[in-house]
Every structure is written in structure tokens, then in C-alpha cells.
Amino acid sequence: MTQAYHTYGDSHYFDNMIRYGQQHITQADIDAVVDVMKSVNLTQGPAIPRFEQAVLEHCGACHAIAVNSATSALHIACLALGLGPGDWLWTTPNTFVASANCALYCGARVDFVDINPRTYNLCSEALERKLLLAEKEGRLPKIVVPVHFSGQPCDMRAIHALAQRFGFKIIEDASHAIGGRYLNEPIGNCRYSNITVFSFHPVKIITTAEGGMAVTNSDELAIQLGLLRSHGITRDPALMTRLMDGSWYYQQVALGFNYRMTDIQAALGASQMTRLEHYVVRRHEIAQRYDRLLAELPLTLPWQHPDGYSAFHLYVIRLQLDKINRTHLQVFEALRARDILVNLHYIPVHTQPYYQQMGFKAGDFPKAERYYTETISIPMHPMLTDEQQNEVIAAIKEAMGL
Ligand SMILES: *Cc1c(COP(=O)(O)O)cnc(C)c1O
User: Rounded to whole angstroms, how far apart are CA atoms 121 and 114?
Assistant: First the structure.
């Protein structure tokens, strides 16, 4: 299986580091990008709808809006759902800051729901308890953002049922999860959400260098997202408030942004999409090999909920610190010293200084905080060879003092 990836790319492409994640670029990707560069449209051309269509065909949603990052997609998703001053958005503390910052961009406030200690995803029981309390206090959230951490889907059926009961909207942050499945259906079909957001940063499952996408089944939301992506400007007479002055005419009907993806990026994305399933299969092979070869160590390995098929963006190990003679910091730094570029996902968002200044404090979300003190993201990407994986495993044993 690794063979296929070596046909195109040398795994020592950059240097001798073994990274926790990295892109895989083929000659077909390069050709697709060069074709756009030789064409008339570097941006706002036909590669954008082609890429959007490829993602829709994969995930089965009705509308896709490609943008320049998942952060932008989260921002316009919040605006399209009407988030504004006085509103609340809730998400998980175990995420990248962008999942929470999008609320602040809209002038809304953020709160968090602690994680499930087995999946590391937002805990649906904790969500229910917090909603009951918020209902009494009259501060129910307008939007909840479940994040499919490491590519493993959240408990979407339960979260969706709570949305019906308490009247909030759902944005799935599927930045880690394109190619994953929930109850045997692709993540991104929006069966249990209003909007799903993907990221195409190079460490994610497929890449456009920088890039993101929002998908939805709502015609209305798709129109809003399309407007917000590009200055709130439309050339569609149906969306205008009066007749066109002439063929040059356009109208600004909302306050949007320039969040457009370029055709160069979209061509790369469309080319990468042809290998999405391949990538996820390979990630599962790597995960299974880690599961087998790390099973005897004092580690908690990623538990997989039977409802989901993870995209395996990350493979996170948790150190059982009471069983080893090393600290979390020592193990982490020992791995980095051996050129194994491990990472840590995530520093709980509420412990960031910017959030502490808003009143959050250590101890607010103890499960996410405990998880943070034990976790390490070890190398996981389709270009990782068995030999490199063996090197990682040997280094982990040595770093743990075993
Ligand atoms: C990467 C990531 C983002 C942000 O993605 P960009 O495309 O870099 O803006 C948001 N949320 C999560 C969970 C991510 O991992």
C-alpha cells in the first residue's frame, strides 16, 4: 500500500523529520495547477464550481461554497445563521481557536462544553445538562459547533435531537473529518446540521494550501454564504432590490468579505479529491498498525465509537503517567529531539490568555484540561512508511523510559 505513495512522492521530500501531518502532492496535482496558471481565470473561474461539485459528490450535500480557509467558512456560517451581539455560540474546548473565534467576529459570546473522555469530542450528556441550566437562566445558545476531533464524528444524532428541543442551529466543524462517515453516511451530508465546514490546510486530509468550504442543504443559507464570500455582491437579478441598470450592473445587498478561494487552489483541491478515499484507507492502515504495535505500552490509544468511521486526521496517544517514570513534557521533548515532529491537539481554548481575559479559568472544563496534560499527536499521514512508523514506535518506547 505504501508503494502507491512512493510512485509520486519521496517520503524524505523535505528533510529527515517525521511530521505529525503533511501533504501528499502528485504530478497530477501539479499539472492541474499549471493548467489553471496557463488559463484566463486565476480566480473566479470554472475550477471553483468543479471543486465544489467534487466535494458535493463525495459528501452528498446540496450546496458548497469554497472559501479561502475553514476560519472564513466558520465566520460566514455564523453570519448566515444570524449570529450577532447578545447571542451565544457553544463549542468544545478541545479544538483549534477558530471554532470559537468565529462567534467573537460576529460580536457574539462563546461558551464551552467539556469533552467525552473516550472520544475527546464535545460530550452530548454534558451539553444536555448545560442546556437545561441555560434554559432556566435564559441564555440558550443560538449555535453549537461540534468538532469531529481527529476525524472521529461527534454524537450527531443526540446533538441534533437537543437542537430540535432547545432551538439552536448546528455548524459541524469537520476540518479534520472529510472522508469520514457517521452511521454509514459521509460526514458533510448535513443530515444532522445546518452547515458543515471543511479545512484544506496542508496538514488536513486533502489540501488546497490554504482553503476551506461550507456545505449545506438549505437553498437560503447557500445564497447567504455565497454573498458573504464575496462582498455581499450579487449579479443575480433575482437577488436585487431593483431592475438592472445594464449588463455591467451588480448590487451589494449585504456586508460581505473577500473570502474567495483562487482557481489555482481549487484545481489542486479537485485533483486531491480523486484520492480522498485512498488517503483515508491508508490512514486506517497506519492507525491499525499503531494500535497493534503500541498495545502493550502504558498508553491510552484512540478509542473508536462504533457509530463512526474516522477520517483519522490525527492519531493521539495518552500517556498513563502513573505507570511511567517520565513527565509528559519529557516524553514530548524527547520525541522532538529525535526529529519526530509530534504535536499536541489541543491546548484547551478557554485556557488561552485571550479567553481567560473574558473570564474563563483553569478548572472550568476539567476533562479537556486533564486530557491536555497527557496527550501527544504522533505522526499520521498517507506518506508515512512502515519504516518511519517503526522509528516512531521505537522512539516512543525510549522517550517513555521503557
Ligand atoms: C484547521 C482547523 C481550523 C481552521 O482551518 P483553516 O483552514 O486553517 O482556517 C478550524 N477548526 C479546526 C478544528 C481545525 O483543525
Answer: 8
Tell how far CA 387 is from the center of its chain: 28
* C-alpha 280 – ligand 1 centre gap (Å): 18
Quick check: 216 and 195 in contact, CB under 8 A? yes
Whole-model pTM? 0.96
What CA–CA distances, in Å, run from 264 to 37, 43, 271, 337? 7, 7, 11, 37
Q: Which helix (H) or strand (E) holds 251?
A: strand 251-252
**DSSP designation for 361:** -
End-to-end CA distance of the chain: 31
DSSP string, 156-200: HHHHHHHHHHHT-EEEEE-TTTTT-EETTEETTS-TT-SEEEEE-
The DSSP symbol for 150 reads G
- DSSP 8-class letter at 221: H
Q: Report yes or no: 101 and 79 within 8 Å, Cβ to Cβ.
A: no
How far is Cα 167 from Cα 55, in angstroms, rounded to an integer?
29
Q: Closest Cα to residue 400, out of 331, 342, 340, 347?
A: 331
Q: Is the CB of 194 under 6 A from ligand 1?
A: no
Residue nearest to atom 2 of ligand 1 (CA): 175
Task: Show the CA angle centred on residue 307, arms to residues 303 and 308, nearest 5°.
Answer: 65
Q: 379-402 burial by CB neighbour count: b if 16+ within 10 A, else e?
A: bbbbbbbeebbebbbebbeebbee
From the list 279, 273, 315, 274, the residue with the least C-alpha distance to 1 is 279
Q: 318 in the Ramachandran plot: left (φ > 0), alpha (ψ -120 to 50) or beta?
A: beta
> pLDDT tens digits for 358-376?
999 999 999 999 999 999 9
Closest residue by Cα to residue 316 from 327, 301, 306: 301
Mutate to test the pocket of ligand 1, among 20, 72, 96, 310 (most ligand atoms within 8 A of CB): 96
pLDDT digits (tens, 9 = 90+) for 262-295: 999 999 999 999 999 999 999 999 999 999 999 9
Q: Give the integer Cα–Cα distance in Å for 319 and 297.
A: 9
Cα 57 from Cα 52, distance rounded (Å): 9
Look at residues 301, 281, 275, 370 and name the one whose alpha carbon lies nearest to residue 7: 275
